[in-house]
């Protein structure tokens, strides 16, 4: 098999899998930090119990996120060595800063948070979880700085055929980053919020620990609503930015071959044939693509055929059209999942506001349980669109994917690693789901999980640090 | 000192930090197999590194990130060239990381045994593989004029690199046992001390064999004879002191000495390499150096400012976390893992 295909497949598998856990960690960290803040401010034990119960799920998830993340840092060099040589100067820096700034912070303070409940004062302990939450978000900032460079390269000059950084500030104020970072992070907040709301709904359905889960649900839907709305808003910003910087991705995500006409309609459904470059069947909503692209009800959007001709002029002969169907459908799946999230969290927030979180809403609670999957679907689809839509480039306009792969790595080695990683990921996923279900079933008031230790008479000397 | 040289030193410092810190984690992980007599003792051992192991592992990630940023060609050549060992390393680290979190969550012997195996292998394989990799850097690897390393199995795994790998494993084990003697009590602590003391003899033998083989198999003593001999002398002193402190049951001092040994060993590798970062066995001219493998000056300057600003904070809060958890782990306490 072609090493390029295997390397791409491995990147897709490991990155998509990794990004199941990362947004959940980012979201849960924030929500737990909010819960513990309420505990410290209001002094009610219930909030501490909330932080601890959701903290258990957070820690299981965090562990998987951390270990699958190690692969990410290694595999640029392992599988994409020519890419690493070409952009290491610009791309390596944010990764190094991420490790130095965010990974150290997360990992040290998570240790202090887990083991520090009795050794730290309330406030210092609270500070630890906030530093973890900030660490996870800062980590997202740096990795997205690196990704944004791939979407829209800035702050570099070409020296001896390599991209060398010449403006670090341009890198961290990349227009792409300014829309991509809030969009991704708000999506992550929503992921954590929907997990908490969904599990709470399930527990309320079972009439278990109603008060506890009512509180959690409320927090979940409120954060979920704000975050989903924000994600959509920044998604819209990102689409407008896309038209300017990567029009081909935009055209592909619309299945738009020729000119759109003015005003441009938005295609809801299309039967796309990439071979002939035509769509045999389409359903369209008038004006909507103009609105999506320019926040106005007029304006034309360029099609793929026109852009292909333009790119051939600029970059030489070649095929510059990304996989159209994948880009088109991943975009629609993301938008659909995101819209559902807004509707569901809006209704949930309404119920919480009118104090109607009782036993009558079983249909809605059931729906909320299933809606846990929505942010995961949206996150994955969003990245599929972003990365597939940029093809054939790894760094837009500078380097193509086919030139990025490691020349010295054989298909045999790649097949081995692909199978090995997929296998271990399967074990991780199964174990994690098992532990999640087990922890959830046990509930927050389970015996023997909490403070059940006897006091050691030899250890009473003051080790409270604050 | 040019920025290229400074970053070479910084990468070395990050690896020293990694092996010093994660070294004892690895040692503890290995010792769970034969030092602990029952599940409770195993838990005490695991909990002794509970708050720390994750942050310690970040030193490796940071070292990797620093290589990527400061020496993209070094990162690209080494990581793609050492593909298969690194896949195994990743699998080991993945299994180990989740095992700490997972093992205690289900009260089932089979479940626990499975993850305990992951902890053991995940603590044994990484220091071994990294030992193999680092001694390979010294010995030289088939790197061509395009900076591509196309190594067969025996280029990577041979007697010299095997001795290197085993030496790192035993060094981490002794270091970890001393950490155990610092953080446990009673019988477990006594056994940890005793085993650490016993392991000094094979460790000494390995060091001597490795040094002799290095003299014959690599050019580092020709290139950097004097500084390496000086490092070796200081290492010998640290080793003897480690033994002496152990016999006096001064665990903390002994631990400091094995830590010093680790630092000196890694420093030795980097001193021997300099100014090369990877030695080519095909042609000396194909070796990667701190000048040919590096990023541009602007990148290095930015990274220097960032690193020197952040590193003091990182060190401060990591040290603080050790201070918070300085008390010994006790069976009667709440054990998280």
From TrEMBL, chain A:
Locations listed in the record: Cell membrane
Membrane topology: Multi-pass membrane protein
InterPro entries given in the database record: Cyt-d_ubiquinol_oxidase_su_1 (IPR002585)
Positions of transmembrane segments: 20-41, 53-71, 91-115, 127-150, 185-205, 217-235, 329-351, 363-385, 414-437
Primary location group: membrane
UniProt keyword annotation of tRNA processing present: no
Alphabetical keyword list: Cell membrane, Electron transport, Heme, Iron, Membrane, Metal-binding, Transmembrane, Transmembrane helix, Transport
Entry's family note: Belongs to the cytochrome ubiquinol oxidase subunit 1 family.
The protein, known as: Cytochrome ubiquinol oxidase subunit I
Provenance organism: Paenibacillus aceti
Gene of this entry: cydA
From TrEMBL, chain B:
Keyword list, A-Z: Cell membrane, Electron transport, Heme, Iron, Membrane, Metal-binding, Transmembrane, Transmembrane helix, Transport
Protein topology in the membrane: Multi-pass membrane protein
Compartments in which it is found: Cell membrane
InterPro entries xref list: Cyt-d_oxidase_su2
Keyword DNA damage: no
Source species, domain of life: Bacteria
Tagged with keyword Aminoacyl-tRNA synthetase: no
Transmembrane residue ranges: 6-36, 82-102, 114-137, 157-182, 194-216, 228-246, 253-278, 298-325
Predominant location category: membrane
Family according to the record: Belongs to the cytochrome ubiquinol oxidase subunit 2 family.
Protein name: Cytochrome D ubiquinol oxidase subunit II
Source organism phylogeny: Bacteria, Bacillati, Bacillota, Bacilli, Bacillales
């Amino acid at each position: 098999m072609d090493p390029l295909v295997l390397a791409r497949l491995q990147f897709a598998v490991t990155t998509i899998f990794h990004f199941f856990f990362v947004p959940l960690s980012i979201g849960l960290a924030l929500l737990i930090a909010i819960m513990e803040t309420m505990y410290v401010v209001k002094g009610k034990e219930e909030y501490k119990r909330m932080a601890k119960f959701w903290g258990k799920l957070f820690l299981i998830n965090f562990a998987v996120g951390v270990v699958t993340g190690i692969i990410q840092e290694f595999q640029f060099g392992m599988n994409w060595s020519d890419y690493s040589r070409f952009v290491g100067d610009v791309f390596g820096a944010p990764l190094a800063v991420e490790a130095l700034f965010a990974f150290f912070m997360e990992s040290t303070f998570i240790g202090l948070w887990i083991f520090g409940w009795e050794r730290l004062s309330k406030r210092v302990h609270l500070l630890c979880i906030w530093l973890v939450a900030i660490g996870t978000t800062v980590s997202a900032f740096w990795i997205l700085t690196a990704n944004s460079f791939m979407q829209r390269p800035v702050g570099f000059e070409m020296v001896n055929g390599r991209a060398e950084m010449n403006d670090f500030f341009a890198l961290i104020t990349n227009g792409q980053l300014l829309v991509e970072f809030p969009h991704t992070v708000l999506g992550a907040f929503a992921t954590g919020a929907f997990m908490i709301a969904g599990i709470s709904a399930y527990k309320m359905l079972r009439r278990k620990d109603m008060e506890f889960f009512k509180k959690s649900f409320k927090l979940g839907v409120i954060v979920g609503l704000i975050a989903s709305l924000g994600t959509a808003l920044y998604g819209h910003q990102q689409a407008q930015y896309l038209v300017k910087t990567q029009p081909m991705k935009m055209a592909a995500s619309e299945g738009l071959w020729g000119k759109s006409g003015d005003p441009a309609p938005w295609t809801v459904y299309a039967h796309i044939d990439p071979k002939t470059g035509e769509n045999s069947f389409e359903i369209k909503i008038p004006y909507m693509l103009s609105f999506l692209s320019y926040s106005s009800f007029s304006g034309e959007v360029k099609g793929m055929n026109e852009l292909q001709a333009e790119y051939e002029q600029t970059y030489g002969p070649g095929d510059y059209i990304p996989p159209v169907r994948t880009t088109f459908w991943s975009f629609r799946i993301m938008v659909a999942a995101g819209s559902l999230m807004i509707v569901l969290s809006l209704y949930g927030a309404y119920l919480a506001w009118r104090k109607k979180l009782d036993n009558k809403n079983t249909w809605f609670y059931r729906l909320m349980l299933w809606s846990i999957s929505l942010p995961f679907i949206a996150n994955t689809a969003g990245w599929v669109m972003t990365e597939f839509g940029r093809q054939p480039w790894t760094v837009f306009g500078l380097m193509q994917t086919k030139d990025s792969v490691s020349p010295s790595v054989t298909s045999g080695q790649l097949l081995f690693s692909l199978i090995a990683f997929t296998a271990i990921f399967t074990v991780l996923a199964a174990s994690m789901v098992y532990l999640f279900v087990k922890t959830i079933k046990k509930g927050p008031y389970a015996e023997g999980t909490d403070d059940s230790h006897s006091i050691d008479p030899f250890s009473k000397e003051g080790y409270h640090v604050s | 000192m040019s920025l290229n040289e400074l970053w070479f030193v910084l990468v070395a410092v990050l690896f020293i930090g990694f092996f010093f810190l994660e070294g004892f984690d690895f040692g503890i992980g290995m010792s769970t197999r034969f030092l602990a007599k029952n599940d409770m003792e195993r838990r005490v051992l695991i909990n002794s590194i509970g708050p720390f192991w994750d942050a310690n592992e970040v030193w490796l990630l940071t070292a990797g990130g620093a290589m990527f940023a400061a020496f993209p060609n070094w990162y690209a050549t080494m990581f793609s060239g050492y593909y298969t060992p690194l896949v195994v390393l990743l699998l080991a680290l993945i299994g180990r990381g989740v095992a700490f979190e997972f093992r205690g969550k289900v009260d089932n012997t089979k479940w626990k045994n499975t993850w305990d195996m992951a902890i053991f292998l995940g603590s044994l394989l990484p220091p071994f593989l990294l030992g193999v990799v680092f001694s390979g850097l010294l010995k030289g690897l088939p790197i061509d004029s395009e900076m591509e390393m196309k190594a067969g199995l025996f280029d990577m795994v041979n007697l010299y690199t095997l001795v290197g790998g085993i030496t790192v494993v035993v060094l981490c084990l002794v270091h970890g046992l001393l950490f155990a003697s610092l953080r446990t009590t009673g019988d477990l602590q006594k056994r940890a001390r005793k085993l650490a003391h016993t392991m000094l003899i094979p460790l000494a033998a390995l060091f001597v064999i490795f040094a002799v083989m290095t003299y014959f198999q690599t050019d580092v003593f020709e290139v950097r004879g004097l500084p390496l001999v000086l490092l070796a002398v200081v290492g010998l002193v640290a080793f003897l002191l480690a033994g002496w402190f152990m016999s006096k049951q001064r665990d903390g001092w002994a631990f400091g000495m094995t830590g010093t040994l680790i630092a000196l060993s890694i420093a030795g590798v980097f001193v021997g390499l300099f100014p090369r970062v990877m030695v080519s066995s095909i042609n000396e001219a194909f070796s990667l150096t701190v000048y040919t493998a590096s990023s541009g000056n602007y990148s290095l300057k930015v990274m220097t400012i960032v690193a020197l600003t952040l590193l003091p904070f990182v060190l401060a809060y990591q040290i603080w976390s050790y201070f918070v958890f300085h008390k010994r782990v006790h069976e009667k306490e709440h054990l998280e893992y």
